[in-house]
From TrEMBL, chain A:
InterPro entries to which the protein is assigned, alphabetical: NRAMP_fam (IPR001046)
One Gene Ontology term from the biological process aspect of the record: iron ion transmembrane transport
A molecular function GO annotation: manganese ion transmembrane transporter activity
GO cellular component, one term: plasma membrane
Protein name, entry field: Divalent metal cation transporter
Keyword annotations from UniProtKB, A to Z: Membrane, Transmembrane, Transmembrane helix, Transport
Highest taxon of source: Bacteria
Bilayer topology term: Multi-pass membrane protein
Keyword Secreted attributed: no
Organism taxonomic ancestry: Bacteria, Bacillati, Actinomycetota, Actinomycetes, Propionibacteriales
Transmembrane annotation, as ranges: 40-61, 81-106, 112-130, 137-156, 183-203, 224-247, 267-288, 318-337, 349-367, 379-403
UniProtKB/TrEMBL annotation, chain B:
Phylogenetic classification of the source organism: Bacteria, Bacillati, Actinomycetota, Actinomycetes, Propionibacteriales
Name the record gives this protein: PRC-barrel domain containing protein
Length: 409, 97
């Protein structure tokens, strides 16, 4: 049982990181517009995040140093600061989207406008960060987030033409009036949603919070290789549901309600209740991860005391950063900006910021000073370098494609 | 540390400073002060923010630099925030584990 619970860090990272508001929205949106024709990106993304998270988890277990500590160490103060600003802004943008997502889930459940729920959501996130033990929060939200499996069951219940879905998945490319440009833009969005940098900041800092050592390499790996593929499977199920329900009807997805609707079609009110609970747990979990990650990145860059393994007063600047970020989220959302739109932008910016944080980890994962005998093998480095190329490509192409397609219009 | 050759930029700069006794995180090595008067330049002190940490205070150099800061206060920033903001919120001193 303890072994089982030890995997919950991976599940929470995956549910909160993989199936957060970004993935819920992007996968449903892409499924409705392209069917399963971008499913390969999810697979590429899952393998990428597994590689990246496994390297950073291994570095933590062997050296006790979390990701952003090392980013500054390898990039130096100036380039490190650039990486910090980029990663921090993306993480803050994601936090805003997640708080909006929690509030939207409550709006769907209650009918009360999300703007009223939003300050409560932010306050609840802060209370959990302030008071609840790290291991408790990862277990609770990881397990409740598993309810999102209902998307997979719903897809089954909807009785789709599996042959047609397979055909879509194996014939990449745009359809109908869609252009290659929008296809590529959404490929980058899906890739960014899968490999959002905060997943790794949270995962590696979580390893320190859990006091991982050499003997925990097994736990670290099972976390990665169970958690993220599970998240990927859920992503595909969400896209599949949208492909079955919306693509033939030509309906565009631009609300969270539309993302959840397929489960209501399959299972009625019960389905809707389950999916809303799952969405709440996933977005709330991701809000915890992103708010903590805002604190982790800044504190680790400057060398401040951080973490929930000490009393809050002992890590006062770390907690102050989190309070400020949550307050900023409330202010931004109060301008009535659409959280779904914030989400769509955040995943593309995530793709842009990734190479800066990926490269230092790849270098350290090859450094025996940190890892002893547990450095990357040749095969791993081969794939890790391919992904470095992919990340650079996505990062460079993101902005031009965003401008040319008017953000996927 | 006698006889161990370290690359100042690789092994010292931008490394995490940790209190050898308590394990508290104290800051980053922002700069290194070299003593050029001796035949081979040796590290005289580490600089973190405006604080100078004499080489004698260094206890261990590994993936982080562990020090015993006898009469230095490296956590002024944290202390100020604790005293004026975070310490005033109920529950700031509760155990998390």
């Amino acid at each position: 049982m303890k072994r089982l619970l030890a995997v919950t860090l991976g599940i929470l990272t995956a549910i909160g990181g993989f199936v957060d508001i970004g993935d819920l929205v992007t996968n449903a949106l892409v499924g409705a517009r392209f069917g399963m024709r971008l499913a390969w990106v999810v697979v590429v993304g899952v393998i990428g995040i597994c590689l990246y998270a496994e390297m950073s988890g291994r570095v933590v277990a062997m050296s006790g140093r979390p990701v952003f500590d090392l980013i500054r160490e390898r990039l130096g103060r100036r380039t490190g600061l650039f990486a910090l600003v980029a990663s921090f802004l993306v993480t803050l943008l994601t936090l805003i989207a997640e708080i909006g997502g929690v509030a939207l889930a409550f709006e769907l459940a209650s009918g009360v406008n999300y703007l009223l729920w939003m300050p409560l959501a932010a306050l609840a996130v802060w209370l959990v960060v302030w008071r609840v033990k790290f291991s408790h929060l990862e277990t609770a939200f990881g397990l409740v987030g598993l309810l999102l499996i209902i998307f997979a069951v719903a897809l089954w219940k909807l009785g789709p033409d599996w042959g047609e879905l397979m055909h879509q998945a194996t014939s990449p490319g745009p359809i109908g009036h869609e252009s290659w440009m929008t296809y590529a833009y959404y490929a980058i969005a899906l890739f960014g949603a899968a490999m959002t940098p905060y997943e790794v900041f949270f995962f590696s800092s979580g390893g320190v919070e859990e006091k991982w050592g050499r003997k925990d390499l097994g736990t670290e790996r099972s976390n990665v290789f169970i958690g993220f593929p599970l998240g990927g499977l859920l992503s595909l199920a969400i896209a599949g549901c949208a492909a079955v329900l919306y693509l033939p009807a030509g309906i565009k997805v631009d609300t969270l309600g539309q993302v959840a609707l397929p489960t209501a079609v399959a299972f009625g009110k019960l389905g809707l209740a389950i999916v809303l609970l799952g969405v709440f747990a996933a977005t709330f979990g991701a809000a915890l991860e992103t708010s903590l990650s805002c604190g982790y990145t800044i504190a680790q860059y400057f060398g401040w005391q951080w973490g929930k393994f000490v009393r809050p007063r002992q890590a006062s600047r770390f907690h102050l950063v989190i309070v400020i970020c949550l307050a900023l989220s409330i202010l931004v959302l109060l301008t009535a900006v659409d959280p779904v739109k914030v989400t769509e932008y955040s995943v593309v910016f995530a793709a842009m910021a990734l190479p800066l944080t990926y490269l230092p980890i790849l270098i350290i994962a090859n450094d025996p000073d940190y890892l002893g005998k547990a450095t990357n093998g040749r095969v791993l480095n081969f794939f890790a370098l391919i992904y470095l190329g992919l990340l650079l490509l996505a990062s460079i192409a993101a902005i031009p494609l965003m401008i040319l397609t008017k953000a996927g219009q | 540390m006698a006889g161990r050759v370290l690359h100042a930029q690789l092994h010292l700069l931008d490394r995490q400073l940790i209190d050898y006794g308590s394990g508290a995180l104290l800051g980053k090595v922002d700069d290194v002060e070299l003593d050029l008067t001796s035949e081979i330049p040796v590290v005289a002190a580490l600089i973190s923010g405006h604080q100078r940490i004499p080489a004698a205070d260094i206890a261990e150099i590994d993936t982080a630099v562990k020090i015993t800061p006898y009469d230095l206060n490296l956590t002024k920033g944290d202390d100020w925030v604790e005293e004026h903001i975070i310490g005033k919120i109920p529950g700031a001193g509760h155990e998390t584990d």
